[in-house]
Design goal:
The structure holds 2 protein chains of 2 kinds.
Chain A lengths: L2 E3 L2 E3 L7 H7 L8 E4 L2 E3 L14 E9 L2
Parallel strand pairs in A: 1-5
Antiparallel strand pairs in A: 1-2, 3-4, 3-5
Chain B lengths: L5 E3 L2 E3 L3 E3 L7 H11 L3 E8 L11 H4 L6 E4 L7 H14 L5 E4 L12 H13 L3 E6 L3 H10 L3 E4 L13 H10 L5 E3 L5 H9 L4 E4 L1 H4 L4 H21 L20
Parallel strand pairs in B: 3-4, 3-10, 4-5, 6-7, 7-8, 9-10
Antiparallel strand pairs in B: 1-2
Helix pairs in contact in B: 1-9, 3-4, 4-5, 5-6, 7-9
Classes of the chains: A mainly beta, B alpha/beta.
């Protein structure tokens, strides 16, 4: 079972942490917010947050809106 | 006029025009329109990142910079209180603890009218969690009062449906809402052109929030400037106090001394 990231299957990154996922998705340096299994994880805790198979991840950013 | 500031949640703003950042051709046009509008508060939406995108692709926040503008993350697209609250929590994390949010809980994709029951529920939760809630709502004086009582920092009734450009459809409701309010009343949605914005301000609104009226103008930057002037003109007219309406003429030149 892979991860589900924004509704799409993604393989477990290496290292299997949120930081590792952000790097694997080439999202480093962007202003993001992440939910891990429904819980918001502050950026400072991304390196220590380990991922397991079937975890649900949401990664959001700010875009134009009214 | 120098002291006539808009105050929201303890912070003061010189401009009473709030603008959105949706529907623009590109970020550069968006930034130029925001600049021309003189707005200090700009709304943004919170959405999933597109996976597989170019990491070096431009980002909205490189153009609408958080150190330049007060960003107002919205809950656009949310149809439940739960989704709206979740979006605000993500926005707070995304913007480093930022507490000011624009709450909208929609009821129907055709009208984009607010679901007021869900809006009230979400507002209660957000206020309890320490958010400063600016709330999009119907132009119903009773519901506006309820939202103020819950602790929203600004109440933002629609003038007409979002993106419709129809202008203020029920100015007597807006007037009633303004007269009873103890928090800023900001007309949000439905403004189409500069005169609509001026009317909102002449009614005594504290500000106007708009997006489509600027973004869908043929020349968005010029319309942004027009809106800036309209907001100032409407505000000054409100403060000046308009003359009474008369059904018949009242000569401006003296009647005495007419020749013949």
């Amino acid at each position: 079972m892979p991860l589900t990231v924004n509704g799409r299957p993604e393989p477990l990154p290496s290292p299997a942490t949120l930081d590792g996922l952000v790097s694997a998705l080439k999202l480093g340096g962007q202003r993001l917010a992440i939910e891990h299994n429904g819980e918001i994880v502050p950026r400072s805790r991304w390196p220590e947050t380990t991922l397991a198979e079937a975890d649900q991840i949401e990664i959001v950013r700010a875009i134009g809106g009214g | 006029m120098d002291q006539d500031k808009l105050s929201i949640a303890g912070k003061t703003y010189s401009s009473r025009l709030l603008v959105g950042s949706g529907k623009y051709k590109d970020f550069a046009e968006n930034a130029a329109a925001a600049e021309a509008s003189g707005a200090e508060i700009v709304t943004v939406a919170i959405r999933r990142v597109n996976l597989g995108q170019d990491a070096n692709a431009p980002n909205l926040l490189d153009f609408i910079r958080p150190d330049r503008y007060t960003l107002l993350p919205n809950t656009a697209g949310c149809y439940t209180a739960e989704d709206a609250v979740r979006t605000c929590r993500l926005a707070r994390e995304l913007l480093d603890g930022h507490r000011l949010v624009k709450l909208e809980v929609l009821g129907d994709p055709k009208t984009l009218y607010p679901d007021i029951t869900a809006t009230l529920e979400a507002a209660k939760t957000l206020v309890r969690e320490g958010f400063e809630v600016m709330v999009y709502c119907t132009d119903d004086p009773i519901q506006c009062k309820r939202l103020e009582e819950i602790g929203c920092v600004a109440v933002m009734p629609l003038a007409a449906p979002i993106g419709s450009g129809l202008g203020i459809q029920n100015r007597y409701n807006i007037l009633a809402i303004v007269e009873q309010a103890k928090v800023p009343i900001i007309v949000d949605a439905g403004v189409g052109t500069a005169s609509d914005a001026a009317i909102a301000m002449e009614l005594g609104c504290d500000g106007v929030l708009m997006n489509t009226a600027i973004a869908e103008a043929r020349n968005p930057v010029l319309m942004a400037s027009a809106m800036r002037h309209a907001i100032i003109a409407g505000r000054e007219a409100f403060l000046a106090g308009r003359m009474p309406r008369r059904r018949y003429a009242s000569a401006s030149s003296p009647l005495d001394g007419v020749i013949g």
